[in-house]
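Endolytic murein transglycosylase
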Amino acid sequence: MSSTFPEDQPQDPNATGSGAPADVPPASAAGTSASGSSAPEPSAEPSALSWDEFLGGISAHGHATAELHPPADAVPSAGPHQHERGHGTHLGGEGTTPTRRDARHAGASADRSRRRSQLADTPPREKKRRPGAWGCLIVLVVVAALVGGVVVAFQGPVISLINAVVAKTQGPADFEGSGTGTVNIMIHDGDNGSDIANTLAKQGVVASYGAFYDLLLTTSPAPIFQPGVYKLAAKMSAASALKALQNPANKLERTVVIPEGTVAVDIYQLITEGTGIPLADVQAAAADVSSYGLPPEAKTLEGFLFPATYTFSPGVTAHDALKTLVDRQFEALDSAGVAVDARWKTIVLASLIQKEAGLRNDYYKVSRVFLNRLDPAQWPSRLLQSDATVAYGTGQTHRVTTTDAEREDASNPYNTYVHPGLPVGPISNPGDLAIDAAVHPADGTWLYFVTWNLDTGETIFSTTWAEHEAAVAKWLAWMDEHPEYG
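Structure:
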C-alpha cells in the first residue's frame, strides 16, 4: 500500500498561508478522507498539511509503514520557524509544507512506535539468571571433590612412582652404623647373594634389598658365604652386615663331625655334644626307625648315618638332625648308582669294608674277598669270618680283635664265624669310598686278608691258606710289640 505525499497533490489556489483548517484530519494510510466519502476533486492549491499533523495522523491510525518517505525537496524553513516538540501542531510561517526530511523523521518515529506496540503486546520473556556467588562456590566444591577423588585413586601409584624415581637418583635406602640388638640370620646351603640380601632385608638387618645387593655387585673379590647361623644386629648398614657375615666369630656353629666308620651309638653322643640336644632326646628320636624311610630290613639307624661334618642351626630337633644324616646317606647311595631295593645289602657290605680296610686302595680288595667268600663255588661255607662283626655283636665296637670264645659264640647274630653270609645288619656307618668299593670291587681270587700293622693299616691279601698263615704270623708279632691293641 502507498501513500501520496502532500507535495504530489495539485495545489489549491484558494489556500491561505495560515496552515490547514483545524477540522481537516491528516491523510489516512488508506488514502481516504476521515469522513469516509469519496475523495474531493483536487483543487489548484490544496490546503497545506503540517508534518506534525501528518505524524499525528499516523500515530492515531497506526497504519504507517516503512515505505513512507518524506519528499526529497522538503527542506524545513530556516530562521524563527521552529517546531515545538510535544504539541503535534505546526508553528511554521505562511505557506510552509512538510519536507522529505520531515517524512524520514516521521517514518523512523513510526517504526519506533510500531516496535513499542509490538513489545507491549508481547509477554515479557524470562531473563536467564546468571549464576551468582553461591553457584560458583558449588561448582568449585564439586570440581575440588572430583580432583580429590582422582588424587586419592592414584595416590598409591603416584607415590610408588615417586619413590622409584627417588631410588634411581639417590640409590637404595641404607642404615648407618653397626646396628643394635641381636638378629640371628640363617644362610642355607646353596643361597646366593640375592637370597642373602632378601633374608637380611626381611629380618630388618639392612634397610633394603638393594642396599646389600648393590654392595655385593661392587665388592671385589666377590664375597663367599658359608652356610650356618650368624649373629647380627638390627638396622645395620649394608657394609656392616657384609663385614659381620665374613667374620667367623659371628657364626653360631652347631657343628657335628662324624668320622667314617663311626657306629650309631657314638654318633648320638656326637650330636648331643655338637648341638646341645639331650642324649635321651637323640636316642628317643633314633628309636623311631620307621620315620626315616629306611629299607624294611633295618631295625636301627646303623649304617644309614652318613659320616661327614654337619652344621646345624640353633634349635634343631633331634629328629631333624638325624634325618639330615639319613638323607645324606641316601644321596651317597644314589650317586654310586645303587638301586633302592639294593640299598640294604650294599650298606651292610660297605659297613664291613669300612671297618676292615685300612689304606684307600685296599677297600676294593677287601670288597672282593668278601664277595668271593659269599660265592659258594669259591667258598662253600660262605662264612665271612670277620672279627669286626663279632666285636660289634659283643658291644665292643672299638675293638678289632676277638677271643676264641667270642668267635665260637653262636648267640651273637653278628658272629660271621658261625653264621654264613652277610651279618644281620650294618656294623658301622660307611662313607663314599666304602660304598663305591662295595659296588665296584677289585678283580682277584683272594680269599684271605689280614691287617698286620694297625697303625698304618697295611694289609696282606692271600689266595691260599698257607699264604694267609704267614700273614697272620706277621700280624701276631706286631701285636706283641703293641699290647695296647690287645
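The beta strands are 180-187, 228-234, 251-252, 255-257, 309-311, 448-453, 458-462.
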